[in-house]
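Exam revision sheet. Question 4 asks you to relate a sequence to its structure. Input first:
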Amino acid sequence: MFAHAAPDAKNPAPSLPTVFVVDDDLSLREALSSLIRSVGLQVETCDSADAFIARCRAPIAHEACVVLDVRMPGMSGLDLQREMGGWPRQPPIVFITGHGDIPMTVRAIKAGAVEFLPKPFRDQDLLDAIQAGLALDRAALRKAAELAGLRARFDTLTQREREVLALLVQGLRNKQAADRLGISEVTVKVHRHNLMEKMQAASVPALLHMVNQLGA
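Answer key, structure tokens:
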């Protein structure tokens, strides 16, 4: 659940990467949009948390970051952050506020915010925070893609190959695995070779690392 609405004249289809500015102050939204676009980033704006949520219906897969005001009519920025915590993919958040305090800052950072900037803030501080957020999202997307690739390769394994893999993970040798499964050691070696090829594992330690990543 993180997406954008269908493109229109005011909100063109986003290119990569995209910064979403969520603030009820029109003049600030326009100023921030101009600033962010000046460094070559796509910007989408929303005047409330509800408006932002309304855009998040169809999944997107590109880098994104949210610049979010803390206090807005209706749902607050902190409430939106909590709501986003339940999404399959949560884009990094940079909070901006004219009414911040230490407990609020701690709460936001503990919940994963990249930065908490009190107004007025320096343009460069905001741009630096946005770049940090985009870097985090880029890494998260890369990790998700790698995990999806691992899962796809794991799904190609036969039931017997998975059984052999499970015994390898337990540290059993080929002969021990063969005895446990009631098959020949040669057959275990064949299954082991095939599953390592399918998983694209160069070594047993690499294979075990993949299994740990999958939680299989």
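Marking note for examiners. Strands lie at 18-22, 42-46, 64-69, 93-97, 115-118.
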